[in-house]
Amino acid sequence: MAAVWQGDWEHAIEQARAALDALSGGAEIRRYQALWHYLTASWGVIAARQHPTRRQSWLQVGTRHFADARAAATDTRWLAELCTDAEHLLAAQPGQRTETPSDTLDGLAIAQIAASPLREDARQFATLTRTVEDGLAQSEAPAYEQALNALWQLAGATKALKRTSAAAEPDSVWMFDQVMWLGWEAKTGTDPDKEIPAGDVREAASHLTYASHESGQPVPAGSVTLYVTHQQRMHHAAVKVASAGLYLVTPEQVSQVAERLITAWQTIRTQTRGQDLQQAGATIEAALRMHRVLPSQWLEELLTRRISDG
To answer: Is residue 103 packed enough to be buried (19+ CB in 10 Å), middle (13-18) or exposed (0-12)?
Structure first.
């Protein structure tokens, strides 16, 4: 860090690589590896800006370490903003804002909602919201799963994984194109005083892989799965088998997001009547932001407790 303050990027990067060499181990230290790869890549970009004659060599440092940071940060949320590359950063002016995964995800949801027939079809909107509200108010699996498989349309996802009642099938997987997938495992009918078992966690951790196999598409980086239950205690084996991208949420949290989405949609349907897609997009963004239901907003709210952390 002393080298960084002095602008001695070569020495700073040399020392960062030494830190990475010392960080050998398993999954428990991958986030530390991701941090040091991110710092090394960022310093490489800064060095390339300040020393144009060595631009290409510094650019290679940035490109390689950003790629390593992304790989080390797989299934984590704290480095989820890392979607750019060294070339892109170097092309941008210092201080200029670059697009993040959250921007892309929010933009996709806004576009999906703008194009949705639910904006104009009052009967279809009423039927769908009734399914969501009634289903999320119940603990029985069929009704709750049906609600999840309707709610994706209000959230602005591109589609949901088609249900076939096959063995090991996820309760729902929302697909925001190839930007992000959101898996769901609902255990709303369980005894809240009992521990979450390892078997259920292991099954939930496989949902995105299942969706990838069924859809023939790779799981996008940064995709996560939500385990919905009233249970708050986990068996120690459940913690061990949980993937880093599996999060614990309560049915109340899901219901709160759903209620805000429905309220936002009511505003959207009223205020965008007769507007074209471009006009509607600005109105939709404002309504979603006001009710805190842009995907980046409600994901931040739900992704607070990782099961692998206990």
So the answer is: middle
